[in-house]
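Backbone geometry:

***
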Amino acid sequence: MRFELTTPPRLSRATVDREEPLRLDPERLVAGWPKARVLVVDDKGRAPIRLDANDVYSVVTKPGPELGAEPPANASLLGEQDGVAYWAVRGAPSLIDGDDPSEWQDLRARGADLDATSAGLMVSAVAVLGWHDNAQFCARCGSATEPTHAGWMRVCVKCRHEEYPRTDPAIICLVHDGGTGDSAQVLLARQPVWPPGRYSVLAGFVEAGESLEACVAREIAEEVGVTVSDIRYLGSQAWPFPRSLMIGFAALADPAQQLVLADGEIAEAFWLTRAELRRALHEGDWANEDGNPVLLPPPVSIARSMLDAWAAAD
């Protein structure tokens, strides 16, 4: 039984054009600054988010000129939409400027509720600003680096080595038995650091020189001792915590295989039916036959999009 994602992962939505050529056009950047909007993100990945008159959550941006006559050196261009350039800077709530600290929220807490424009802006801002925080020294000689290309490159002041924002690819895979109807089964697991009752699909980082499909097979085998087949791509979502790209797959496995949990990585793993998953999605949390609560990933995660799609299939 094949299935596809029924809705885009919440953090994969975006409407602003990244406009890479604009990053290399200083005159146009300065010319567009009077109309520019700036998203301020603090060092914990929080930005001001407000519920508008249409009951939609949106990020709150500031006029560019409030930061100066031209784009600050530490600002990163997020893109352009309808003739307005959007930028991001590191900052914090300012009571003097009338900011309300209670409005500042992060992507984990509010990302699933944001409109598509705000989601794309905030994901990009959190990712690129986080890279700047950790790329201030040259990886080759250790000297300081300076931002350029509207915040999308840093150059070593000594050896001129160029650094660019990095993304760590990670696979995330919904393993199921290929069955149909309410009795079909899906494999869920819990990491030791998660609270009791919190379960999700399996995931892991792609190693150097490894294909995505090979990573899926390796990670599933290493984490729960299960051999998978029919590995299929479903979709992807940025996960800037701090710089991951979650690449979603589905794969088939036989539930009769013995589960062998990776010590220190997987605390629990089990198969549950589509009927049970639908119940969990409907009720938010529930209890299995052993009386243990089963809590599913929040809507902001691509894991939830995958589980929603599989539950709705057939």
About this structure: The first strand starts at residue 37 and ends at 41. Helices lie at 26-32, 107-110, 116-134, 212-224, 274-283, 302-312. The chain is about 20% helix and 30% strand.
